[in-house]
Design a protein that fits this description.
It is built from 3 helices and 19 strands. It is an alpha+beta fold. The strands form 6 sheets. Strands 6, 7, 8, 13, 14, 16 and 19 form a 7-stranded mixed beta sheet that branches. Strands 5-18-17-12 form a 4-stranded mixed beta sheet, with no helix packed on it. Mean pLDDT is 77; it is low at 39-89 and 115-127. This is DUF4352 domain-containing protein. It comes from Blastopirellula marina DSM 3645.
Length: 322
Amino acid sequence: MQLRCPHCTTVLEIQSAAGTQVQCPTCSGVFLVPDMPAAPAAAAPPVIQTRPKSPGRKSAPAPPKQPQSAPPGGAGEEPADGEAGVSFFKQHEKLIFNIAAGGFGAVALFLVFAVAKYLIMGSSSGGGEEVEVVATETNTNVGNRIQDVLDKSENDPNYYINWADASKRNLRIDGLRVKVHHVEWGEVRGQDEKGELVTSGRPFMVVYLELANRSGSPIDFKTWYGTEFKSPAGFRTAQLSDEQRNTYYPLRFDDIAKLKWNTPEKTFAPKDEGTDSVVFDVGEDFNPQTVQNLYLDLPGQAVGDGGSFRFKIPRSMIEGLD
């Protein structure tokens, strides 16, 4: 059997019986061989009793494995999505913070402007609701009613209106040249949505115009036929009158989709040409035999910010009166 020397702790192989004195060959120390107890019988393996889990209780998840570093020069394993996100955030933490701060600043600035706009504009209009303005007789051609202009130009020596002789001259605003080709007193003809011929059934006054872009830039045009143009004073429409100050009412036919010579909207390229037509109704007491000259006022808003194309149209240019 093997014993450890109590003096020098050397492990010795002992053959002597228990109670015998032996001497350690290493340190020469003497000690008694102790009694050795008999080897116990092999014990049966213990029975492990498991405790049932509580209802609804879940086992704790296993702790995540620590990622192993890739060997030098090797491709290694790609990190998991969460680890990659954390790593990217740590590497670009300052940049992300600056971007986030800038975004919050932009949002805050937008809110400040929105509140300021509401306080400035919304409070004066009943909660910021936009009010739709509709053209009526009281706010149409305010300060530019053709009969008033005619009266003032005749009675006020300081008020001068140049009515261009339509038989000799054309007018130009913002590069768009307008010329009166002729005027017709008679039935209006056009086409409906199916392309079939439609007639008005009674006479109207129709003015036919020639248009041309004499500028070096494109010009956006909108027809004078039945159009109400917004102006600082209200609304403006094409106007027509005569020397008796009769009122001719501009109108649009709902059942005529395509009117002769009419151009609803168009962008005129430089040197481009086109046409337009305007229809006017007359009063019940209208007498075509008394007409000597017509006075036409076309709002400049059809091509620009304002102004007027004003023509004096002699009887010789009006067809259908005789």
